[in-house]
């Protein structure tokens, strides 16, 4: 599964995703995030460079934990403003043939019936190129702004998400048979009613007695991605995900985490390698190591400490202003995201991280590592994340919007292709085929969602 590497660009439908203060750089194109031409041009760049896809993060809350206010997040545009990424997809899909699209959508406050319809629609209009990054949300302000006084507890969010995904899978896989749409003009019958089934779902959180609103799309279910790395997050990934993305700080900590995921996947009754692992990295590249290093140092001069801490406090629910910037962060438990705490307090045996270290580290590209160098250096490093960390591919974040990914296409892609590590022709099929090979557009038989199909449709 790890050759060729799977390569996605990681982005946000807003000016500043994971890097802080960099929007001030003269080459940065953040302000163009509202312009559909910008995204269409970007999609063409990625497809031309044989990327598997573009992956949009999203957040339905905002970062108001740092200094007890949203002000620092607003000053740095730290994931706010944030447009809905789903609306970018049709235009980007129309301009490309095989580029995949990962869209983050939270299970916290939407209803699975509406979300199932949204992803079926996207899968139809992209001809099977859509993936859903299932997130559970983590902020109290997101709850309040969706008329819920307090968010669910961490583990309960995952239990709720599990049922949410289950309802969607029942709708996608179990409601309509493949040959339900017959368009029989003589019989004046567009759809054969005997081939459309109610899902009869009654659960702890949702009741959905009826049928899906959409006919089956090419993939039926979107490719299911997952990102939470806590114990409960891994359980959800092992049970339902086809790909996960990680932001480990070292190859050793990644390997540990991948081993845990593989064991959990087997325990969930699936094949060991049925979940692809994408590590988030930021690559600053140029023609030579020296030029790349100079570029990186230039970027560092733009990093905003407060912007980085606004993000980190929001992700973790911990107000970093309350902590001594030079005392290593202790293992604490909050009701927000645990992964972002664990990667600096538990999973990295090689280093004790202080708040100042964390701010510097996440100021460029968020919590994933930054790789700086010319073509050979970057390719060597990516190769070793696969060999030593167990990655199947990468979700490429950026510091300077557009430019860093463009540099990657120019300097690194040819080197990876020369080594046989990256595809040399753009994908022409569905997203699931891009990840798992031609002919694999539908959920695999050992995925729990496939049992709903088997119950309704003869194999
Ligand atoms: C690498 C990574 C990327 C994530 N991306 C998003 C995102 O785009 N939107 C979001 O609401 N949550 C995102 N999350 C949050 C998780 O999906 C999850 O809701 C949160 O981390 C709490 O779960 P955990 O304790 O298992 O980490 C991300 C988490 C990680 C680790």
Q: How do the helices and strands follow one another from N- to C-terminus?
A: EHEHHEHEHHEEEEEHEHEHHHHEHEHHH
Overall SS class: alpha/beta
Distance between the termini: 26 Å
Described by strand count, sense and barrel closure, the largest sheet is: 8 strands, parallel, barrel
Percentage of residues in DSSP E strands: 5-15%
Count up the helices: 16
CATH architecture, by name, is Alpha-Beta Barrel
- Our count of domains comes out at 1
Can you tell me the overall shape? globular
CATH class type: Alpha Beta
Overall number of strands: 13
- Pick out the low-confidence regions: none
Q: Indicate the radius of gyration in whole angstroms.
A: 22 Å
Identify the strand order in the major beta sheet: 1-2-3-4-9-10-11-13
List all distinct small molecules, including ions and cofactors, that are bound in this structure. Answer: flavin mononucleotide
CATH fold title: TIM Barrel
Annotated CATH homologous superfamily:
Luciferase-like domain
Quaternary organisation of the protein chains: single chain
The overall pLDDT, averaged over residues, is: 94
Q: Helical percent range?
A: 25-40%
